[in-house]
Amino acid sequence: MAFEIHKHWQKVNELLTANLPFATVTMVDMRGSAPQIQGAKAIITSDGIVEGTVGGGKVEAKAISHAIALLKMNDGPSCEFVTWNLQTDIGMTCGGEVKFFFELYLCNDWRIALFGAGHVAQALVSILTQMNCRITCFDSRPLWLSKLSDHPKLTKVLSENPKDHVSQLDERSFFVLMTQGHSTDLPILAEILTTMQPPYVGVLGSLQKAKILRRDLKAMGISDEKIESYYCPMGLALGNNTPPEIAISIVSQLIQRRDELGVLKHKTKVF
User: Fold this and answer.
1) pLDDT tens across 139-186, in order?
2) What is the pTM (predicted TM-score) of this model?
3) Numbers of helices and strands, H then E, in the chain
4) In a domain, 267, yes or no
């Protein structure tokens, strides 16, 4: 039992580190022919059980479906007790009741879509993975993606056409563009501005690059309002032009914008 409890909390810590939503369910009481012992635990994500068991069969199937339903509720309870009759509620022939305790661990909605895995991105990701967010990094260069340290909060996507992935991303994402230059940033930026209204779009570059970007976007028929909605140069006006300090200035602006929007305030229910 001690080994199983260790595995349970090890998995809880792993999911919290990865910032993935999940529920824990514990059998706290039983009457009659219950399929597990009191204190049995399971961890459930949107994909089903990832650790432990509360009995298998119909009882566990109902616990899984109930946990997944709770995870989908934006403003539901953060924990609750439920009691099910094995015959009337679960459809089993044996008599008895089971009582479960559900706890929800909901991650926040701060998602960052990073286009480019170059020097500044390397420094940026090393900071962001220490924070409460999820990052997806796109690049066409396998070598640069491989230089990013693997982390549960980081998803790496190798693509010859990163622009094509914009439509697959959540509109609530913070978009950070730092590809190889103007010619590769421009199509991604244009796709973002013409298809969605994300809370933050930033492009790495100088004032001269910003001027050229605005000129080219206007030539593409993008409205002045859209053109004024993104940051270039992005980052707060602090530090020098080394990748680590540029990354710090960008993270500072991301945090500033995140807090203005209250991104972390309405979804997190962690015990």
Assistant:
1) 999 999 999 999 888 999 999 999 999 999 988 899 999 999 999 999
2) 0.67
3) 8, 10
4) no
